[in-house]
Design goal:
Blueprint (H helix, E strand, L loop, with lengths): L1 H30 L3 E6 L4 H5 L8 H8 L4 E2 L6 E11 L6 E12 L5 E10 L2 E9 L8 H8 L6 H4 E2 L2 E2 L1
Antiparallel strand pairs: 1-3, 2-3, 3-4, 4-5, 5-6, 7-8
Length: 165
């Protein structure tokens, strides 16, 4: 009878060990799932359709979609709305997986000249949609600054024959 009690206790311990191992494995797998975080704000396509190119002004755009966190500095010819999505995966450094920029440019008189939506595909700037009244597009300097450094910065470009630039 004492032998039967010892065998039953050993089986119970094995069951508890298996249960603990299974729970530990479940916690490890759950901890390795990516966490996504969004930063910034981009107006929805429905809100952008409410803006009429050539008719709306800065004030009416601000009422529809709000004021942006970035605009052109020199001549205030455009507003830029930027949204980025980052993936945090375990202890690794966060990685940007998506970026969208909506650029609304204005005429010197203050009316909307152009509405463009840009995305980030494989490190390249890609126009997703565009509503333009003129054939020339001005004020893209901010976008080039924003997207231009992705994958373009090399050590060779920063060092000349005499040392560092």
């Amino acid at each position: 009878m004492a032998r039967e009690v010892r065998i039953g206790a050993a089986q119970d311990r094995r069951g508890l060990r298996r249960l603990a191992l299974g729970l530990s494995l479940a916690v490890v797998v759950a901890a390795c799932q990516p966490i996504y975080r969004n930063h910034g704000y981009v107006p929805t396509e429905i809100d952008l359709q409410r803006i009429e190119v050539g008719r709306d002004t800065r004030d009416s755009v601000a009422e529809v979609v709000g004021r942006p966190s970035a605009s052109t500095l020199l001549n205030d010819s455009g507003w830029y709305y930027v949204q980025s999505r980052y993936r945090h995966y375990g202890a690794r450094e966060p990685q940007e997986v998506d970026r969208q920029v909506v650029a609304i440019t204005f005429n010197p008189s203050g009316t909307v000249r152009n509405i463009e939506r840009f995305g980030l595909e494989k490190g390249q700037i890609v126009p997703l949609s565009r509503r333009v009244t003129d054939t020339t597009i001005e004020g893209t300097g901010f976008l080039r600054q924003l997207f231009g450094n992705i994958g373009a910065l090399r050590t060779q470009d920063m060092i000349n024959d005499n040392g560092i630039r």
